[in-house]
Amino acid sequence: MGVLLLTTLTLLPVFHNGFVYDDTDVIENGQVIHDPANLLEVFGRRAMYVSAKDKGLMAFDTYRPMTLVSFFWDSAISGRDPFAYHLTNLLMHLLCVVLVFQLGQTLLGSRAWVFALFGAAWFALSPHPNTAQIWINGRSDLFCTAYGLGAILVWRRALLANAHPARVGLHLLAGLLFLAGLLSKETLLMVVPVLWFWPETDTSVRATERVMRTTPMLTASAIYLALRVVVLGGVRASGGSVHIETALRHLAPLELEGLLGALWPRRLYLRFLSEEFGALATYELTLLAILLILAPCLLWLLRRRAPVVAWGLLWFGLCLAPAALIAGMLWPGFGRYLYLPSVGLAAAMASGMRYAWEHFPKLRAAQAAAALVYLAVLGISLRGWAQDFRDVESLYGATIRKNPNGPHAYGWLGIAYRKQGREEESIGPLTIAHQLAPDEPRYTHHLLYALVETGKSDAAVDLAESCVRLHRSNAVECHLLLYSTYQLSDPEVALGHLLDCMKNDPNGARCDEAFTHALTGHPLRARYHELARDRLAEEEMASVRARTAEIMRTER
Fold first, then answer.
1. Where are the beta strands (DSSP E) in 83-183?
2. Beta-carbon contacts of residue 1 (< 8 Å; ≥ 6 apart)
3. How sure is the predictor about 330, in pLDDT bands with cuts at 50, 70 and 90?
4. Coil, helix or strand for 99?
5. What is the pLDDT of residues 341-392, one digit of tens each?
């Protein structure tokens, strides 16, 4: 109870926090969760369905209806006010802390409750994993962890049940809870193989029996995957072979970064690991990969002397691995991906502390003092994190102070301002982001929009000219602005931008539409026809020539 009270007091600042990251698109600007008629609809849609920024199917998609359902009851309580959403997240986190404590007792024995309590306290106060509940839309990790741990605890009780009906009922309940966890977030799938290596007191349990007795979880997994295939039209778990290769290449540094971040967090919230890991030298990636390959061997050797430590580290490593698929993209909130993996780390730390306590009795006072100081430092840091998530200025400002030469906090601050309609204020941070990362088209495009919206047309044209020189396949907006600027004064330049856009971006439908209008509805359409005929005759325009054949046959 003391740990729960301390955690609650530490996290009270979250109730002063507003919406950050994609909370705005789901809660503040979104419509789906605020209409109860859509409640059942979420079971037949992908997770992004509830976002105001949903743009259709993605290569990497998610199916999390149980998490989405929770937004409906929060909306019923407080609408677009953040209070109920933060309350739900805090309560779910406290529930997970209790379940982590129960898991620790199950693994170590009820008489080792003090060590299980230490593991639960670490889990409760570690700042990086807590991003899952400080950031409202990180809650899928909370629900996934709560349902998953509930399923495991019920499953262990079922294995000990003597009466057949009770055992069957408990197995059924475990399976249903596990399915609910999978419907909250798919990474719970990685827990299934971890359960096969449960640190048994009876070492005679055979491998086949270990697998067979996880039938409730295996059945729930099969049902979830079938639902995912039906709803998403396939598993939709990657963007293809290149995406998977990048994930495998970044897996080793991701595991190391996750472990270090969970144990000793750095106060830096925007983690673009694709850039950080991409900057590593080949020999560094190779060395880390070798260490990752050797890790299972080390865990196998460790299992006899410290079985729970080995099992907990296995849980951490396997449950974090799917995040490598995201680490190849730009995304904020890295810490939330440590929430489920940190359950295993909490168990390992609890077991490790008990081992040290039993084998080094003369150092017990020092161990207790070090543990308390460590938890206190984590708690102080966590409170600071909770305060930093108050609004976009405090969140991105904290990152800028920590990493003033990093472009992304400036860029995301500018984008956040634009979402709020603060176009003039967005120009400053977006300009800095563009200067620090000129090769990142996202910041260039947002700066372009801001300049146009605020009437700074000359600056917008200069930026667009720079944009088309720097970017090829990501310069649609720049080409369109330049076409709009020169369409009457210089049709040759204007048409050149449309054709370059179509050549460099085969899926640039907006440039296709503008080209069609130029040749059919524009006052200078005859001139555009003439210019297009000459330019399309060039060999390098073969792909565009095929796309424009029909429109070129139209009447001028």
1. none
2. none
3. low
4. helix
5. 999 999 999 999 999 998 898 898 999 999 999 999 999 999 988 999 898 8
**174 domain residue, yes or no:** yes
DSSP 3-state of 245: helix
Residue that has been written with the tokens 């400036």 in this structure = 410
Query: What is the 8-class DSSP label of residue 21?
Result: T
Two tokens, residue 77: 């309580």
Q: Are 245 and 328 in contact (CB under 8 A)?
A: no
Q: Which of 402, 389, 397 is nearest to 13 (CA)?
A: 389
pTM of the model as a whole: 0.86
Residue 537 lies in a domain: yes
> Both tokens of residue 61?
């998609």
Within-domain flag for 183: yes
- State how far the alpha carbon of 245 is from the alpha carbons of 39, 73, 238, 279, 296, in Å: 38, 40, 10, 16, 21
Query: Does a structural domain hold residue 516?
Result: yes
Element of type H or E holding 477: helix 476-486
120 with 3: CB under 8 angstroms?
yes
Give me 293's structure tokens: 């390959």
Q: Which range of residues forms the domain containing residue 521?
A: 472-556
pLDDT band at 335 (very low <50, low <70, confident <90, very high): confident
